[in-house]
Design goal:
A: 337 residues, Uridine Diphospho-n-acetylenolpyruvylglucosamine Reductase, domain 2, Enolase-like, domain 1, B: 204 residues, Ubiquitin-like (UB roll), 2 domains, five-stranded mixed sheet, 6 helices, 6 strands, 14% strand, metal-binding (chain B), metal ion binding (chain B), oxidoreductase activity, acting on the aldehyde or oxo group of donors (chain B), Aldehyde_Oxdr_Iron-Sulfur (chain B), iron-sulfur (chain B)
Chain lengths: 337, 204
Amino acid sequence: MRPFSYQRASDPDMAVQALGAAATNTPLTKATAQPLAGGTTLIDLMKLDVMRPTAIVDINPLAHAWSAIEPGSDALRLGALAKMSDVAAHAEVQRSYPVIADSLKLAASAQLRNMATLGGNVMQRTRCNYFRDVSYENCNKRNPGSGCAAMDGVNRMHAVLGTSDQCIATYPGDFAQALIALDATVEITGKAGTRSMPFAQLHKAPGSTPDIETALQPGDLISAFSISGRWPRSVYLKARDRQSYEFALSSAAIALDVQDGTIRDARVALGGVATVPWRAREAEALLKGHRFDEALAQRVADAAFADARGRRHNSFKIALGKRVVARALQQAVTMEI
Amino acid sequence: MSDKSSSRPSGFDRRAFMAGAAGSVLVPMTARAAAQDASETVAQNPSLPVEVTLRVNGKDKRLSIDARTTVLDALREHLKLTGSKKGCDHGQCGACTVLIDDRRVVSCLTLALAAEGQEITTIEGLATDDRLHPMQQAFIDNDAFQCGYCTPGQIMSAVACVREGHAGNEPDIREYMSGNICRCAAYPNIVAAVKQAAPEIMKG
């Protein structure tokens, strides 16, 4: 690991200033100053020499103000420094937002969930082996313009949706799919104070700039997430190579509002198959106003993957992903609430 | 010669020699950073070692370390508490699991500087006097290891698993112990050990 200076944030302003001092045209992922929350991505990638900050700003002292779990009568606000394990275990989150609780509970291990924060979780970097192994020169995310070793390499774990000819790295998280499905808002504290944006606008598809992963600038910190409405009829289904402690091959975050057997509102988001947290709006449109049956589930699953493009080793994700969507829909429709 | 023989010439302890040799390169004694206000800035010049106080198994330990030092390396290399093991060093195997403020974490991804002011409990801190912790005894009773390398991490994780209330049945134990890999695959016996110790731990 390369040397760095270490500072503890005394308050949000100090953290924002320390993190934002670098030139603003630097992509966030390459900024010389990086925030330390749970450290489960940052310290790992620093050991791998993928991330090379010269300054670490420990934002954990901000947790007293930024880690509350606040369910309202018809809304939920989650502090960005809340730990994954605490949110997953929260009774009201489990009751009214099972898709959130389950997306967190099915991620990582008990130890990592005790460390990792919600804000850091959505900012985690891809698990693409060519990105994580600096002995491969060809990675457009690490070295813009160098090419992509995964395109014709071992790409079993890679994305089939939202890819470009520059990058096919999968967004690895689970919680983000729950957030995008529920139309969450992300609150950002930065140089100009606090602002909010739809969570769906936080992540950037790779396009021609895979090194730009989010809309955040150096000096921006995620301070909270908020969700309006309650979604007791929601599920997170995750298919993976082993039963526990593994990234998704394919996952689905589903939230439904069903009245008298008719689907009034439907949310479908996909994980493990796309370069960014993925909302399948065409699939949702097929559900609204209809009664659920297996044929409908199949049409919805087909629509969700209509634009999917597999490569040598990952085409199985298209068939698998459709089954995950169909099964998750069935679970959501039949769950007792 | 007995393993406990005291006839070994002093100064030839491998671990002490390695630590001393490495320390003389990595931590020049002439380049100590002035102790700074721990509430804010801790290390501004990355080339200088930093003073930090870690509370480990109930005792305060003052250390002068490189800012890059993880809790795992602080325990093993600076405090000679070698019970916590370095497996992958990337948070994937769980061999380095310790409790920080009673929550299980992987010490290999935790910076020592960030753990200042928190209570660190390691495998060395579990037993009381000469009596093993119930989870340690349960691992012995159930033959819950072969090579033993993952065992300290398994036991620390298992203690937390029980206290969290995630040891009520075998599927829960398997799910909530999944962050600790055992390449000898002693899993059935580990599950049995956790089941055995759980009631005694919950009794307090």
